[in-house]
């Protein structure tokens, strides 16, 4: 997706604007087909903030053209976001999620649709006879509950059934061909994609992306082997599940000015939420190191489970699925005592604006707010004032945003949502369009298993929850947690009975699936397609790029330090005059390369160049590949690219009059100007950053930058920049 200008999705921080790449984002697709019945489904774990109903619609349209009509429908695809908070925004069709992104972003959306559709098509076309193994086990020291006071509101006898206030279990599938060779791995583990906080401006898969990178590298090879991240046949997905109240910031929250604990209930320091922040295990809270640590722990655990799964075959037929669209604002729920309750029209509570300890909000909001204020009532009442009935339905939530009453410029949040249950033999995957909390997920798994047993399913039953799948409707807490009105409860938009409604819906899907009967779809109930109504303030196209008089694109501005020798752990960087990277996303390629001189390489250099050219790259790639092992003199071997986490591609602009950095800001005028051109006041620069990994081979190295400038008269012009040669010992 776009690596500049666009707001990052997750923290709703208008100042968090993309400015480069930490790791590339991927869609990882798996297709399972029962050859006896020819039933199949596709499961996609995508490095995006969350699922989108509009993405699903357009992916199905693309698959109709790629594979034939009806091979995949909305019923048999599941697209689950990993919930990284470091991916570009603008791909959801509802207004609430477009406020900080300044509307829809077609470049983000089309890139995501293309990537997901192409991944599914590649998986479908690459089907072979095979088998699935399964293993599970607990992983410690990799998550904490960020709303522990809410968790404690659940019944004591229920909490006593569990050893922790988060789910520690990782459930893993090992997919193999008929000879037992590993083709891929798919697992679910509860942790938020928030190791990188709201000060990060680089695209990244966060801790899950890091784990996927490591496991795929083990099987596919590294960049130095001629295999870029994302290339190779082995696919490893670390998918999201019921992570609603689960944080990777294992050091916990503290007051940043004093180091003292925050208030446990409100997550404030002296009454302010902005100063209460949770930190990961990285040195001095280093967020990139924290993402690497949490990602490595997941990778190491998955590596062990892969070995166990090789010896533990899963009953993987029948393959089946059930899917239902439901208007979640109008579900009547029958409780265990026979009484009935209803869900509510969507609304956000005050604590929604407080944010979380992973990313605090602003102004005078705090978690566990249970009453309204005249000032904010007046402000939000201009958009829509909730009716007395809506206030009563959502109680004890104090309503900040009455989402159901706002339709300017179009709907603010989804009301019709998909629920889906996939079956792979004895594994059942519940696709939920939201973030379930720990206890909400536990109850859902138990409900599904009980329904299956009641309907006569025998033997082993495993239930996984695919979170943030197929659409996005914020959070789901238990009824008890809802009473505490922390962030997750305030963001449970359909009211206190939301969770009970989901339990009832999935109970029905499970019974239908087990009994082999269809699930009837109510006539006329489907999400809208608002693609023709989308408002986009940031144009897709970069009009032109420019450099100062006397400078050239790719020219070095600040070089590496050649007077010293580098070793493992050292950081070096070089800065070049560049172009806005939104002009060419270099999908399936890279903006940078770290290259090592290979004296007398001859055939070896040619072999690496050949393997690099034959690697799987997107058909949407523009411009010349250039650089690395395919250099014409064939004496440089590419050892790292921008998808490798030891590198960073950092985009920024400078004031042309002074040459000083000018960070992108949240102002509309600022981002609109930057989105379309390198104007007379600003020029683009790109910094290439590399931290020398352990066991790096000694020798001479250089950094290479790949860009594409949009010229006023000549159109897109590819260029390169190369640093001076430096030594690693």
**Residues in β-strands, percent:** 25-35%
How many distinct helices?
14
Q: Which structural class best describes the helix and strand composition? A: alpha+beta
Q: How would you name the oligomeric state of the polypeptide chains in this document?
A: single chain
Radius of gyration: 25 Å
Q: What is the general shape? A: globular
Largest sheet: 8 strands, antiparallel
What is the first-to-last residue Cα distance?
36 Å
Helix content: 10-25%
- The stretches of 5 or more residues where confidence is low (pLDDT under 50) are 602-633, 663-669, 676-680
How many distinct beta strands?
A: 35
Tally of structural domains:
2
- Nearest-integer average pLDDT: 91
Overview of the molecule:
It catalyses: an N-acylsphing-4-enine + H2O = sphing-4-enine + a fatty acid. The chain contains 14 helices and 35 strands. About 6% of the residues have low confidence. It has 729 residues and is of the alpha+beta class. The strands form ten sheets. Strands 1, 2, 6, 25, 27, 30, 31 and 32 form an eight-stranded antiparallel sheet that branches. Strands 26, 28, 29, 33, 34 and 35 form a six-stranded mixed sheet that branches. Strands 7-9-10-11 form a four-stranded mixed sheet. A hairpin with a 5-residue loop joins β16 and β17. The radius of gyration is 25 Å and the shape is globular. The protein has two domains: 432 residues, no CATH class; 144 residues, Immunoglobulin-like, CATH 2.60.40.2300. α1 crosses α2.
